[in-house]
Amino acid sequence: IRDDLVTGVQTCALPISVGLATHDLDGRGRQLVERVLRHAVGRDGVVAVRNTLGNCLNVTSGTSAPLMAVSARRANAEAWAVGLNGNIVHCTDLNNVNGNITCAPEMSGTTVNLYSVWADPIAPRVFAVGEGGLVLERTLRGWQQVAQGATFQALYSVTGTRDGPVMAVGNDGTVLTLSDGTWAARDVFRPLQWRA
Predict the structure, then answer these.
(1) Which of 2, 86, 129, 153 is most deeply packed, by most CB within 10 A?
(2) Distance CA 137, CA 125 (A)
């Protein structure tokens, strides 16, 4: 976050990755409560949060490593950010309008670069992916490596559905899916094989 000296208006610094949780809906799709929470991460461990009042807050992350991605769990007003050298940061109290948002590093158990993170919006599931096919899952015992040997390709994105399948994608059309507790490589995209 920086203060613009010309206009005096507080603006958010340009992020590497932005996460957005827009609003809660009732059973008929009507908006109940406006809860715009924007989360941004970037180089030097920058974590920026736009709270429910629209204020952009710079939060100390506890790391100086570049953070590459962020994912929020709206139900608990918390978010996780991942980055280079295995850095993972957990932020809580994102709804706090007074700026009392807390971020702290979590032990990932790796020094591998992490490129993406996904937090299930309801269930207590969080996954992170990175170099060499690394997939981490946050459990009650901390971050655990899962999907060993499913791929050795770098994974650049992970997403899922509430209480449903999780998918990670990466180099050379690599697609991993988690279904019924098992990670498996899917042959969805196959690189072209050129012949002379």
Answers:
(1) 129
(2) 7
